[in-house]
Amino acid sequence: xxxxxxxxxxxxxxxxxxxxxxxxxxxxxxxxxxxxxxxxxxxxxxxxxxxxxxxxxxxxxxxxxxxxxxxxxxxxxxxxxxxxxxxxxxxxxxxxxxxxxxxxxxxxxxxxxxxxxxxxxxxxxxxxxxxxxxxxxxxxxxxxxxxxxxxxxxxxxxxxxxxxxxxxxxxxxxxxxxxxxxxxxxxxxxxxxxxxxxxxxxxxxxxxxxxxxxxxxxxxxxxxxxxxxxxxxxxxx
Amino acid sequence: xxxxxxxxxxxxxxxxxxxxxxxxxxxxxxxxxxxxxxxxxxxxxxxxxxxxxxxxxxxxxxxxxxxxxxxxxxxxxxxxxxxxxxxxxxxxxxxxxxxxxxxxxxxxxxxxxxxxxxxxxxxxxxxxxxxxxxxxxxxxxxxxxxxxxxxxxxxxxxxxxxxxxxxxxxxxxxxxxxxxxxxxxxxxxxxxxxxxxxxxxxxxxxxxxxxxxxxxxxxxxxxxxxxxxxxxxxxxxxxxxxxxxxxxxxxxxxxxxxxxxxxxxxxxxxxxxxxxxxxxxxxxxxxxxxxxxxxxxxxxxxxxxxxxxxxxxxxxxxxxxxxxxxxxxxxxxxxxxxxxxxxxxxxxxxxxxxxxxxxxxxxxxxxxxxxxxxxxxxxxxxxxxxxxxxxxxxxxx
Lengths: 237, 397
Prior knowledge:
heterodimer; A: alpha/beta; six-stranded mixed sheet; 10 strands; B: alpha+beta; ten-stranded mixed sheet; two-stranded antiparallel ribbon; elongated
C-alpha cells in the first residue's frame, strides 16, 4: 500500500480531562485504509468510534499519535484552525448519520457549495455537482429542495457532497442508519463503486448488521483500542 | 459563491416577510412618533408665519399670547404705530374654546382679527375672506367645517365664509377667525344674567348710585358691559429695521412685553412643547430598544434553529466569516423590509392622525441608518452563538 495516500493512524491516543477524572477514549490506535478501500469501524456505544472519527475529521486534536490523511500529516508542526478548516474542505468528505443537507439550497447547490467554498467558479462547481448527482442517479432531482427528496435521495446527495472536492478520504458516520436494509445496502454499494472509481479511502462507522458482512476489513473498537478483523467481503450486486 | 443569506431568506420567505412586516409596523410607529414631534414644531412655526408678524406685543411679565394669558388695552396699538420702525400694528385676541356646529362641538382657537391687518389668515383654500364686520368666520379645514356652515361661538351664530389650511394652535386645535369686536365680546363680555346681577349690585351701592349725581350709575353700568382689552398686538417692522431694536423701544416706552420671531419660536418650541417633545423622545428610545430586542430575538431564534446546519457548514470548511456574514445579511434584510414597511405604513396612516404628522426625508435617512445599526448590533448575539458552534457537533450523536 502507498503510505503517502489513504489513511494512516499510528499510536493515536485521546484523553479527556485530567487527573482522577481523566478518561482515555482512544489508546494507541493503529489503523490504515488504502486508497480505493472501504473499511468498517464497529464497536459498542462509548467504545471510542466517534472520538476516532472526530480526530480523523480534524475537529479534535489527539493527545498523542500521528494521523496521515491523503499523504498529509495533520496536527503536525502547530496546525492552525484555518489549516484544519481547509483540510476538512479539500481532503476529507463527510457523510453523516442523517443527510444534514442545507435546507435552503437545492440538491445541486448542496453539492456545489464545497467547490464554491474552495474558490471554484459557480458554473464549474455546479457542473461538477451535476456530474456527481448523475453518477449517484439523482440528477433528475437536481433542482429539488432537500425537503422534497426521499430519505434515500437525500443520502445520495450527501454522498455526492462528500465527493464534491474529490477528497482522498471519506468518513461516513452510520450512513445507513436512517435507511431500510435494501437502501442501506445500496448506499454501501455506491460507496464501494466510488472508492474504486475515485481511489478514495473510506471509513464507515456502523452498527448495521446488514452491511457489516460487506466489508473486507473491519476495525473493531473496544475500550479505545482497535482490533483488525477480516470481514466476509460479501459481494454486492 | 452563492448568497447563503439570500437563499435562506427565499427558502423561508413567508416567515421572513411576516416578521419584517411586524417589525415594520413597529418602525412605522417609531417614524410616526418622530413625525408627530416634527409636526408640533412645524405647527408652531406655521402659527408664527401665518400671523404675519415680526413682533408680538403682550402684557408685561407674561409669555403671551400662546403660552400664557395676556391682556392689554386695545388702544396700545396706536402708540406703537407711532413709534419709529413700526410699519403696521394690529390688535388680536386668541381664545381656545368649544365651537358648536349643530349638536356637535369642536375644540378650536378663536382668533379675533382686523381685516387687512396682521393676524388675518394669509391664504384660503375655499370661499372668501371675512368682509362683514360681524358674524362671519374663516375656519381651518381640520375643524371639519364647510363653507356655508353655521357655527355658534358663545351667544352668537357665525357663517363660515372661507376655509384655510395648516392654521392650528400650538396644541393642534384648528383656528376659527372672526372679526375682532366679536372676538372681544366672546372673550371678555359677561353673559346676560351676570350683567343683570352686576347692575343690581351697582344700583344697590349708595356710593355709585347717588341721588344728587344723575348719569353716574348709567356711566358705571356702561363700563361694565363693554370691554376694550385684547391679548396681543401684532407688529410688522419697517423694511430695513431690526425687529430686536424696535422691540427694545416698545418694551422701554410702552411698559409691555415685546417678543421677536426668534423669541416667540423659543417660547413655543422650547417651553410650550418641551414636555411633549421629551415624552415623544422617551417613546422613541423605548421603541428603538424594543425594535432592537425583536430583531435580536428573531435572528437569534433563526440561528439557533440552524445550529446543526451551521455545524455541518463549519465541518465542511465554511469560513466563520461566511457564516457571520450570512447572519448579518439576514438581520440587515429584516431591517430593510422593516424600514420599507415602516416608511410606507407611516406615510399611509400619518394623514389619519388628528395632529399634523410631518415625515421629513432627513428623518427617513436617519431612521434607515439607525434601523441598520440596530440590526447590526442585534445580530451580534446570533453571530456569537453561531461562531461558538463546534464543527464536531455534526459528527456523532
